[in-house]
Fold this sequence. Notes:
The chain has 215 residues and is an alpha+beta fold. It has helices spanning 7-16, 31-41, 61-67, 76-79, 96-105, 111-125, 130-154, 167-173, 203-206; strands at 53-58, 82-89, 158-162, 180-189.
Amino acid sequence: MEKVIDQKAFMDVIRERRSVRHYDPTAKISRDEIKEMLKEATLAPSSSNLQPWRFLIIDEQPLKEKLLPIAFNQKQVVEAAAIIAVLADYEGYKQAGNIYKKAVEAGYMTEEVKATLIDNINKRYENRDRAIIKEIALVDGGLVSMQLMLVAKARGYDTVPMGGYNSEKFKEAFQIPDQYETVMLIAVGKAAEPGHPTTRLDVEEITFWNEMPSK
């Protein structure tokens, strides 16, 4: 029997999500729950299912204080329960064997299919331009980031995606190897003040059917 999704609850999560910048500093989230949220978030799709996303969780107050000036003194950095740094792994394709091994064990593919996929991926990625791998990984990182924010909202937490930080200083301060690219920071916690409502362009303004307008 096909499982019925509660559409109203799902739409409530989408409509009620806000970018929250003021957090209750006394509200904490356990590491176990953060891991559960990440497990749910990583159900997001990725190119060839390579899942190149990696996460650095910053939940210790001295380290949040260290991050504060790097993130241009945005107060959510020190007030939120945690800051999740979403990273993209340039060498994520090397996990193909592990990923597809699990798929074989789950009965999702045969050994023959697994071998073919791994061979194709290695040929495609081993000598691929780093800029192209970055483009793919940033798209995948955006997908998992959005899913993480929706997962957090469904659990009663608030978030804000952050691109306002010095990525080079962040990598240096937190000893991020060159193997990884920063995607964004996500503050997660309990709102002290609600995020302000925003407006959106009408669908008619941004949607075109079968061909783009000339102007």
